Automatic annotation (TrEMBL):
Region of interest: Disordered: 21-52
Keywords noted in UniProt: Lipoprotein, Signal
Keyword Lipoprotein: yes
InterPro entries: Spore_lipoprot_YhcN/YlaJ-like (IPR019076)
Protein name: YhcN/YlaJ family sporulation lipoprotein
First and last residue of the signal peptide: 1-20
Compositionally skewed regions (Polar residues) per UniProt: 21-37
Length: 181
């Protein structure tokens, strides 16, 4: 009887012992935030880098990193314009979209189908841009299809002459968009 009881206890104790944490493990637990090491930082060349983005600093680490040269916060305007346009065109009610992103403003001109009202289309365009851009951006949207050409012309003007003052040209498009509302 003692043998059977011993076998039963033994069969429960061994699996439990295997599940117990290894106190002698010299490897830091990568899931424990208190055990961060430089080796655990992501390699920017790894394919997994495209799956998620992650950064964590303490205030001291951030201050040390930026002590010599504060980091300028920038966005890729072309990529942002591409994202806004692509998201809008996933909606079958948008047939053509032109998006221009500056330092402070986003201009969106589009051609929409008859299945969507002008107000709803403008609202969708503005909300899409707001979901992507920083909050300080001013967003203008219009279903005036002639503005698609104006935005494209403005883009090519800047590409041909980097010294072009875009502010009056952008303001002219914004004023036209405001008239259309």
């Amino acid at each position: 009887m003692k043998t059977k009881l011993g076998i039963i206890l033994f069969s429960f104790v061994i699996p439990l012992a295997a599940c117990a944490p290894n106190q002698n493990n010299s490897e830091p637990n990568p899931l424990d935030p208190n055990n961060r090491t430089p080796e655990m930082e992501s390699d920017t060349n790894e394919p997994s880098r495209d799956k998620i983005g992650f950064v964590r600093y303490t205030q001291d680490e951030f201050d040390q990193k930026n002590a010599s040269e504060p980091k300028e916060i920038r966005i890729d305007r072309n990529e942002t314009a591409e994202m806004i346009t692509s998201i809008l065109l996933q909606n079958p009610d948008f047939e053509e979209v032109a998006t221009l992103v500056t330092d402070e403003e986003a201009l969106i001109a589009f051609k929409a189908s008859d299945n969507i009202s002008k107000e709803t289309a403008i609202d969708n365009a503005e909300k899409t841009a707001k979901s992507i851009l920083p909050g300080y951006y001013t967003i203008h949207a219009s279903n005036n299809t002639s503005l698609i050409h104006n935005i494209e012309t403005l883009h090519y003007s800047v590409m041909e002459n980097q010294n072009t003052d875009i502010n009056p040209l952008v303001q002219e498009i914004v004023d036209t968009m405001k008239k259309d509302d």
